[in-house]
Amino acid sequence: MTASTRKAFPVANTIHSLQSPAMPHETTVRVRYEETDQMRVVYHSNYLVYFEVGRSEMLRSLKLPYTEMEDKGIVLAVTEAQASYHKPARYDDLLTVRTRIEELGKSRIKLCYQVLRAGELLCDGHTTHAFLAAEQGMRPVRVPDYVRAALEPLIETSRVA
């Protein structure tokens, strides 16, 4: 996503809840000292951890925690990750992670993220995940019906040209 095509996510009114389809889920994280470098700036790879927190909390809010999927033999493997860094987060900052579903394919899901501090965009990016059957040698499988039913109403429908 380039600066000219980047768009802001619509915002849900309440943290940790989706108010309507295509609204991003929001969760907050506080930057811990261990996540920073000697200058107390968040180390770049930690933004991927923040993406994971956003994804996990979004799934949990939909009553689809990773543990439930794993208990049913389904795992999500990251097949692609991308992050663009705009401004640094620092030790003790309170960050908002916005997570939304962009695509849901036959056996993959693409999620987009924004990490903000007081409404200011610090980082954005996406991850793509494959649904795999743990008991079948980590073979790709179709998105389970119960997962698809929970996620489809939330897929981003508006696209930037």
Description:
There is one protein chain. The chain has 161 residues and is of the alpha+beta class. Strands 1, 2, 3, 4, 5 and 6 form a six-stranded antiparallel beta sheet that branches. The longest helix is centred in the N-terminal third of the chain and has 16 residues, at 46-61. Helices cover 18% and strands 34% of the residues. It has a single domain (25-153), classed as Hotdog Thioesterase (Thiol Ester Dehydrase, Chain A).
Largest sheet: 6 strands, antiparallel
Can you tell me the CATH architecture?
Roll
Number of domains: 1
Total strands: 6
CATH class: Alpha Beta
What string, H for helix and E for strand, traces the elements in order?
EHHEEEEEH
TL;DR?
The protein has helices at 46-61, 66-71, 145-151; strands at residues 25-30, 74-85, 94-104, 108-117, 120-133, 139-140. With 161 residues, it is of the alpha+beta class. The N and C termini lie close together (11 Å).
